[in-house]
Amino acid sequence: MQTLSTTDVLARFGKALADPTRSSILLRLKDGPAFPADLAESIGVSRQILSNHLACLRDCGLVVAEPVGRRVRYELSDARLAHALGDLLQVILTVERICTCPIEDCAV
């Protein structure tokens, strides 16, 4: 087991959130544990794609796999992650649109 620095933790969290599929998985798990088949169906991806993203999230330390009989259930590795995700969803970002086209007075 390795203890990471705060910047490493943030980098792993950022890597996880940088992909829409991984973000969807984390948001779904924010509401509670789930089985891979249910996750795949609820976010609309194949089980193979989901499996690849779950492996990444496990490598980042954000989710854990818990055996339940013959199945495996996934959940957030720390309950505070659910709170952090909830807080992030409350942030309002203002993104300035910058037109880089060569046309002067572009309506975009």
TrEMBL record:
HTH arsR-type domain sequence ranges: 1-96
Pfam family, any one: HTH_5
Biological processes, Gene Ontology terms: response to cadmium ion; response to lead ion
Signal peptide coordinates: none
A GO MF term: DNA-binding transcription factor activity
Gene3D superfamilies per record: Winged helix-like DNA-binding domain superfamily/Winged helix DNA-binding domain
PANTHER family with a match to the protein in the record: HTH-TYPE TRANSCRIPTIONAL REGULATOR CMTR, TRANSCRIPTIONAL REGULATOR-RELATED
Protein's name according to its UniProt entry: Metalloregulator ArsR/SmtB family transcription factor
Native source species: Paenarthrobacter ureafaciens
